[in-house]
Amino acid sequence: xxxxxxxxxxxxxxxxxxxxxxxxxxxxxxxxxxxxxxxxxxxxxxxxxxxxxxxxxxxxxxxxxxxxxxxxxxxxxxxxxxxxxxxxxxxxxxxxxxxxxxxxxxxxxxxxxxxxxxxxxxxxxxxxxxxxxxxxxxxxxxxxxxxxxxxxxxxxxxxxxxxxxxxxxxxxxxxxxxxxxxxxxxxxxxxxxxxxxxxxxxxxxxxxxxxxxxxxxxxxxxxxxxxxxxxxxxxxxxxxxxxxxxxxxxxxxxxxxxxxxxxxxxxxxxxxxxxxxxxxxxxxxxxxxxxxxxxxxxxxxxxxxxxxxxxxxxxxxxxxxxxxxxxxxxxxxxxxxxxxxxxxxxxxxxxxxxxxxxxxxxxxxxxxxxxxxxxxxxxxxxxxxxxxxxxxxxxxxxxxxxxxxxxxxxxxxxxxxxxxxxxxxxxxxxxxxxxxxxxxxxxxxxxxxxxxxxxxxxxxxxxxxxxxxxxxxxxxxxxxxxxxxxxxxxxxxxxxxxxxxxxxxxxxxxxxxxxxxxxxxxxxxxxxxxxxxxxxxxxxxxxxxxxxxxxxxxxxxxxxxxxxxxxxxxxxxxxxxxxxxxxxxxxxxxxxxxxxxxxxxxxxxxxxxxxxxxxxxxxxxxxxxxxxxxxxxxxxxxxxxxxxxxxxxx
Length: 650
Fold this sequence. Notes:
Elements: H1 7-10, E1 23-25, E2 32-33, E3 39-44, H2 50-54, E4 63-64, E5 77-87, E6 93-97, E7 104-111, E8 114-121, E9 137-141, E10 147-156, E11 165-169, H3 170-205, H4 208-227, H5 230-234, H6 249-264, H7 267-270, H8 272-297, H9 309-329, H10 334-356, H11 364-367, H12 369-446, H13 449-458, E12 464-476, H14 479-484, H15 488-506, E13 511-517, E14 520-525, H16 534-558, E15 566-579, E16 587-590, H17 592-602, E17 609-612, H18 613-619, E18 624-631, E19 639-645
Parallel strand pairs: 1-5, 15-17
Antiparallel strand pairs: 2-11, 3-4, 3-5, 5-10, 6-9, 6-11, 7-8, 7-10, 12-14, 12-15, 13-14, 15-16, 17-19, 18-19
Helix pairs in contact: 3-4, 3-12, 4-6, 4-12, 6-8, 6-9, 8-9, 9-10, 10-12, 15-16
Coiled coil: 397-445
Family: Belongs to the adenylyl cyclase class-4/guanylyl cyclase family.
Transmembrane segments: 182-203, 210-227, 247-265, 277-296, 308-328, 335-355, 370-387
């Protein structure tokens, strides 16, 4: 991993793993940590076989995993893990190996010193048509129904000191794979989007920094894929030995990162000393690359001591941060995002190293901390590039504007009068438009928008008949007696308080306010635009009005103030609607439906929504209605009436 030199900061921290012991699988919804319950034996690569371990006389020095550090990248050392699993269930259970960097893994399931099954895995092993993926490898366990089997896992070419190994059911395994596929799909898609975005910027602006950034992101994505085994899975599955040359990839990404830094921070001209230092680091990365390739070609016979990349990475980290701070102090603001991106990357490295050293537990944030850190770093670098592009555009625009200003200044005396006249015309035009807008707003506050449009087009509005309109009447009970106890100003303020609230409620529905007559409030649904749901909307608006009235009454009672009590009546039927007269237009409705709605209000009760038979038939599926019987009304036959209310939430 690029810049893994930070392992020097935490390499001596003590491990904190659980002690070894037998694993009893009783709950298929649980994931069992095999690594923490295992014992470890370090041997010379290939010197100890499974037969040596199963001999009755064998007494090899296995120790709990917390007492032995794995020597990462050391191909001369092999590791045996030993643990016992008792499967109390009758279902198939799997061993899962999360990290894919291990080159060779052999899993032996034994009982009574006999090998029951051998499975060979590893990032450099051919797949042979198996369904497992190299990025998350697994193998089934034979033990079932209380059987206890001893497992031996042999590994060579281990790239990390933390080896997540789990025992889990088929369902848990599939869930784990699906989560992993989703995360990496989003991750690599994000990287691809950043690359395409940077290339588009390069094509449009021809800024070399965007091209270098796109190439660096491409190789960082490849490094992240190598880090999780996705390269051998998707790119060179037929020839997995190529994977070993991935050890040289950190040198490539570091080399590209320095080239991007030199261009982005403009070090060649703004800070020549930093520029020369960066060129020196590029040379060191090239040497590290050649040594890595040579070491792999010689089957690691040069040893680990030839790997200078960790030291170069440490030097690069110091160089990147100090160069960024230096340019930020010089006023280059995009350097701030560059610095933050680097800090997030190093934070991800530190978290991952603490996890691999046993100081932090296995989890999504710890296991994927490097990927998350790289993702945030890439994002901040993209923001920094965008900021830089905007800054360059702004500078160019300012230069162009200065040239234009000089031209305009030369012509100012000639065109000043024309400009003044144009400003006056524009000002007058704006005033006329504002006055027209205010007039239209006042007109729309009086008449429906459809009627206003008709008046504007034809100069008049024809009355129309609507076959199904729902009319709502409200009235204040004992208004005269209550009003006598208030001053005229207080009375008007009280009525205004209620009717403003009613207006607000109507604005939530397709209901037209018709007028107020003293203490009466009249509105209707289904006109001037016809819609079949108007009975339901009007009843729902009435319930909202009633809820407001109740809340207002409670507040006033708590303050010791008097309040109004309202009756509400609703009826559905045909009406004629329109405007009459030539002055002080008012949109009104006529017909027996209006009279019947008034009778519904008059024969209702305070706190109730009284509706007619025709309205009941249209809303009975939406509200709970209680039949009142036939109520005699003035100048009409007795009418069926109902009280409407919301269905109980119980």
